[in-house]
Amino acid sequence: MAKKEAIVISLGGSLVAPAEIDTDFLNDFKQTIQKYLGKYKFFILVGGGKIARIYQKAFLEFGGKPADRDWLGISVTKLNAEVVRQVFSRQSHSKIITNPNLKVRTTKDIIIGAGWKPGWSTDYDAVLIAKNHKIKTIINLTNIDYVYDKNPNEFSDAKPLKEINWKDFERIIGSKWVPGLSTPFDPRAAKLAERLKIKVVIINGKYMKRFEDFLNSKSFIGTVIQ
What is the CATH number for 90? Predict the structure, then answer.
């Protein structure tokens, strides 16, 4: 039997729980992943999203230090990851992975991960998973259609980018990590991905067909960073 190709997915927490658990999204995501289990093995790193940022903002009001706010966000990623693991039930590895450097021994083709340490997001953990398993592409399922040349929420003339290199991407998002930062891809993760020559594909997870188009090597709506 041919060895399955491994796929790393950085799954935005705001898709899983924008305000409450989005069961419609999770059902669509489940059906899509299950459709490709015969071909791929999936590492899914789940973020904290908007709910994590709400907690972190409140913590900041009471003097929470950056590391403490990060730990708070990591706790939310673990809750979100448990929800995703339960969605796949027995099809997924029985434990949530929090240390991306540890070797996972399992026969399951779905492995769910959450946050690990302060100082970065689950995007960085996804890059570490890719590094340790010699995977050269990460799919970042998020809630935006493209990376833009500037913030589209602030500038009406922001232009969508179908392709961008890491240097230009870093000029757009900056290089500093702060707890709760909301960017298409974590700045520290971007630096590591650039160094390791890993490609990141940004796709709006609200539209599973776009994700499937990518898996089927078809033209898709989204941004490639490399």
Answer: 3.40.1160.10
